[in-house]
Amino acid sequence: MPFKPVEHPKCPKCGKSVYAAEERVAGGLKWHKMCFKCGLCSKLLDSTNCSEHEGELFCKVCHARKYGPKGYGFGGGAGCLSMDTGSHLGGEGAN
Ligand SMILES: [Zn+2]
Ligand SMILES: [Zn+2]
Prior knowledge:
Blueprint: E1 23-26, E2 29-32, E3 50-53, E4 56-59, H1 60-67, H2 87-90
The structure holds zinc ion (ZN) (2 copies).
């Protein structure tokens, strides 16, 4: 029987092996207990309040702010649309 090395999964946060005693699972990835925290507010998470997004971990609050449908607070997405850019071109008697 050939020797088969034990493959420990790598923590997406720090890139080191994760052992069963310290693993946390989210989004099909394994994280260290100490790496299992929000990428924005650094709050330590557990399986009930975490949200994994493309290999990054967020608390529910930060995830909703960053990727939620409203997107308020982080200036992304719809917030970039501005309706007042035409006013100075038309001239409202400012010159
Ligand atoms: Zn780690
Ligand atoms: Zn957070």
